[in-house]
Amino acid sequence: MTALPASCTCAAPDAERRTLIHATAAAGGLAAVGAAVPLVSSLAPSERARSLGAAVEVDIAGLPPGGMLTVEWRSKPVWIVRRTPEMLQSLQGLEAQLADPASAKDQQPDYARNTHRSIQPEVFVAIGICTHLGCSPTAVAPGAPQSGLGAGWPGGFFCPCHGSTFDNAGRVYRNKPAPTNLEVPPHRFLSATRLLIGEDSASA
Q1: Given a cut of 60, is residue 21 above it in pLDDT?
Q2: For the chain, does the N or the C end have fewer beta carbons within 10 angstroms?
Q3: Distance of CA 23 to the CA centre of its chain
Q4: Per-residue confidence at 46, pLDDT binned at 50, 70, 90?
Q5: Whole-prediction pTM
Q6: Strand pairing of 68-73 and 76-82?
Q7: What number is the average pLDDT over the span 169-184?
Q8: Strand ranges (DSSP E) for the chain?
Q9: Residues 130, 183: contact at Cβ < 8 Å?
Q10: What percent helix, strand, coil does the chain show, rounded to 5?
Q11: How far apart are CA 57 and CA 45, in angstroms?
């Protein structure tokens, strides 16, 4: 093996090695992206649903009492909750604790400007994004010990990012970071078991 002259610093081979490493990494990254595209495409919603403002039709026949279904509309999560009689009862008597109990602020269509904030009392539709900084709240059952909300918690939604709480109609509690109730998107019933999210009778 021939020794390199003492004056050689080997800078050129090191530079070439670094260039080769960078080029290989870049090529590998492009290959990974190329492999991911078919998977992402296969999980994407239909062309109609991805179009700006396109309504999304949802079958809620299999949604049980107390169950929640999440669909995507305008790249936002939309909750559909089939409320039980107990969940509807929990909406009563909270007026003094809520920031906007009568839904005076325009966070819902006129047909959802009621105590249950819905067309049909048992079916609640809302955008699952906290109105504070856009975090994602979670549904918390009454008295759930892991939530830290206390034994008197009647059930609703809790945003763990900054502590905002909402009742089972998406109405925000007083003195919380979220400034308004959860948004109710335009929607209508096509039948007893099918909903159209993003379009109502006024805009159809």
Answers
A1: no
A2: N
A3: 39
A4: low
A5: 0.73
A6: antiparallel
A7: 97
A8: 56-59, 68-73, 76-82, 123-127, 138-140, 156-158, 165-166, 187-191, 194-197
A9: no
A10: 25, 20, 55
A11: 12
CA separation for the pair 101, 165 (Å, rounded): 13
Using 50, 70 and 90 to split pLDDT, how confident is the model at 25?
very low
pLDDT at 200: 85
pLDDT of residue 90: 96
Positive or negative, the CA dihedral 32, 35, 39, 40 is positive
Task: Return the residue matching tokens 């067309």.
Answer: 119
Catalytic residues: 162
Extract long-range pairs of 102-109: CB within 8 Å, 24+ residues apart.
103/171, 103/181, 105/180, 105/181, 107/131, 107/180, 107/181, 107/182, 107/183, 107/184, 108/181, 108/183, 108/184, 109/184, 109/186, 109/200, 109/202
pLDDT value, residue 22 = 41
Which amino acid type is present at position 46?
S
Q: Residues in the chain, how many?
A: 204
Sheet holding 187-191, edge to edge: 56-59, 194-197, 187-191
Residues in contact with 18: Cβ distance below 8 Å, sequence separation at least 6, in sequence order: none
Mean pLDDT of 23-42: 38
Model confidence pLDDT, tens digit, residues 70-83: 999 999 999 999 99
